[in-house]
Amino acid sequence: MEQPLWVPVLQAVVVFAYYLLITAVLIWAERRVVARMQSRLGPNRVGPFGILQTLVDGAKMFFKEDITPGMVNKVIYNLAPLVGVIAGFLVVAVIPIGGEVTLFGETFTLVVADLSIGVLWILALSSIHVYSVFLAGWASNSPYPLLGGIRSSAQMISYEIAQGLAVASVVIYAGSLRVSDIVAAQSGPGFIDGVPAWYAIPLFPAFLVFVIGMVAEAGRPPFDLAEAEGELVGGFNTEYSGMRFGMFMLAEFMSVVTMSAIVVPLFLGGPAGPTFGLPDSVAWVMPILWFFLKMVGFIFFFILLRGAMPRYRYDKLMNLGWKVLIPVALVWTLVTATFVLIEEAGGLPAGTRLGLAVAAAVILLVLLFGGRASAPDTRSVAKAPDITAGRTPALDEPGSADLQATDHQEVAP
Amino acid sequence: MTGHDVVFVLVGLLTAGGAVLTVTSKNLMHAALFFAVTLGGIAGVFLPLAADFLALVQIVVYVGAVAVLFMFGLMLTRAPIGREALDGQNRGLAMAVAGGLFVVLSTLVIGAFGDLPTAEVTGPRIDDLGIAIFADWVLPFEVLSMLLLAALIGAIVLARRETGESGEELTVTRIEMAQDRDPDALEREQAALTSGSGGDGEEHA
Amino acid sequence: MAIGYYFIVSALLFSIGLIGVLLRRNAIVLFMCIELMLNSVNLTLAAAARMWGGPDGQVFVFFVIVVAAAEAVVGLALIVNLYFRRGTLDVDVPQLLRW
User: How many structural domains are present in chain B?
Assistant: First the structure.
């Protein structure tokens, strides 16, 4: 199947433009939704419902004076935001945004590159994203950015482990590292009639770990310790201004979009969905629509989290990552592997499988929440490990969370 | 030259340059960054070798974790920067040894394999790799898992400092910034530090 | 391109790493140079795997990466501990075991 060169190029451009556009709309939508949750109006001046606000903000940032403080390490200071944006952008290369589309006599697969190791690509680029935050914090040569950078790189590395383990159980279950194979593996009938075979159901613990991990990985509230404005001024991007700050902002919102896009093919069946018996000439729209809806669901979840949750404390965040998420994901990887082996050896009847799944879920929930109630919370505070050296106790004081509701960090007035 | 060769030449130059800069950088954070570049370059060299799985594992493990770990280490130990970073007295000898080693290695390798072209395969498929790991090499794999567990526990044991164990606790860990520091201030601080904890070390001896 | 060039790059990296190990005195930089040498060996193994066309060389590289990660964790913990107790990272300074 030899294609002319412009077909893959067009595919790549369309996919990247798609995610960029969604990012732009997300910035507006987040401000509107959070404003609604706080009985405000939000941006409503530019365009219908203020939807062009992002464009205007972008233009403003572009023309603002780009200050480079005198003390910084210039090369790295300039490099850090670029690394973040590029890494955030390249992740989407392996995510399909729809099925195949036939236009002008050519077949377009709506993905930039369906690598045989696509899942690893996702993990690799999110680990490169750490560099952006870390280098920005270090190169700024200023205490608060440094603390923010160290905090958030430690956070990202920790949650990457949990996320990687969650992805590992998906890979074991699907038997492939290729994203399109994982999507195809979820297209069959599920083991409960009438419910799609999305991995979110059989691999529910992994799904949960992945979703929590992705909030932490994107550095979003309630896990936005990197830029806790109550404690760290602005975190790693304090010294940045103008377009470079804009790039960090873009990278952050971009990571919300990409994380939402990643979770859909891994756990929610990707672009699959009913086509309602539409004729073939129109049916190609449905996968795109389904993928969009699923992704927007997760984006909305991110926004609601931001509006509803107070910021987590750093030591609690680390405890959650290392003592809850990683063990859960590890155990679930083992359980998944066992089930795959049983399946290969002949398999269990559907009822037993379901019963086992429910029992496992109940045990997990009891372990998670039953233990929490019996153990007094003060103990964990007193014995909290000293994870970030150089941290002063004042930085860990709770009570700064209510500040996050104000919009000033993300969008300069 | 095919596309693979072009990729190889470019990435190989990047890797070698990064390695040279890693060794010669006086600023230790720069050394660590060039180290990360070198590791990324090696991941790039894996690509024309048809080892894309290895390339991505290299990025996830080395660039994403090990190099960042090194940077954390440099910050926690507030790496001394400046004139003492390179040791001049052995320079000629070290160059001679390394150069000699390079000449020996390359002549041996060229003599043995130099004229063999790369086999015209697209590399082992990822399933073959998995089967090789979990069938032929399963015992080393299991041993490795034990090694990882031991390393995890060992690192935790080493990293937790209980008060009154041994050594003088440095209550505050200063973290080094990007800016080069005043070398005299550094020297004074180092002197104070070594005299402070040096006495303690003698007690233990 | 003949496989020999890959071996040359690998030998070059190994030599550079060796120079670093011989010249630098900061323990962490030493450690980085050792990792560099390990990586050059990885490169050799991957090139050999390409030459023979089988998966075994790549499996070896995979194992070496895992071992190197474990080594990096423990080694850094040791180095940081050394720093906290001796106040220096200069590898020439700790000499308690010298007789």
Answer: 1
A400, pLDDT greater than 70: no
Pick B60's closest partner by Cβ from A72, A124, A138: A124
B139 within domain boundaries: no
Q: Which helix (H) or strand (E) holds A338?
A: helix A326-345
Nearest residue in A to B74, CA atom: A138
Q: Is residue B150 part of a domain?
A: no
Predicted pLDDT of residue B81: 46
Instruction: List the CATH number of the domain containing B172.
Output: 1.20.120.1200
Do residues B28 and C26 lie in contact, with contact meaning Cβ atoms separated by under 8 Å? yes
**Is B143 a member of any domain?**
no
Q: Which chain B residue lies closest to A124 (C-alpha atoms)?
A: B60
Look up the ipTM and state it.
0.88
With CB atoms and an 8 Å threshold, state whether B161 touches C84.
yes
Kindly determine whether residue B23 and residue C16, on different chains, have CB atoms separated by under 8 Å: yes
**What is the residue whose two structure tokens read 């106790």?**
A393
Number of A/B CB contacts below 8 angstroms equals 77
**SS3 state at A102:** strand
Model pLDDT, residue A390:
43
Q: For B83-131, how does the pLDDT look when each residue is reduced to its tens digit (9 = 90+)?
A: 455 565 677 887 888 888 888 888 888 777 766 665 555 666 778 888 8
Chain C residues within an 8 Å CB radius of B148: 66, 69-70
Phi, psi of A107 (to 5 degrees): -100, 120
Interface membership of A16 toward B (CB under 8 Å)? no
At B151-179, the pLDDT tens digits run 988 888 887 765 544 445 455 555 555 55
Contacts of A325 (CB under 8 A, 6+ apart): A159, A162, A209, A212, A213
- What residue segments make up the domains of chain A, in order of their start? 6-392
Could you tell me the residue range of the domain that residue B70 belongs to? 3-83+91-123+161-204
Q: Tell me the pTM.
A: 0.79
Alpha-helix runs per DSSP H in A218-273: 229-232, 242-267
In a domain, B74, yes or no: yes
Q: Does domain C3-86 have CATH number 1.10.287.3510?
A: yes
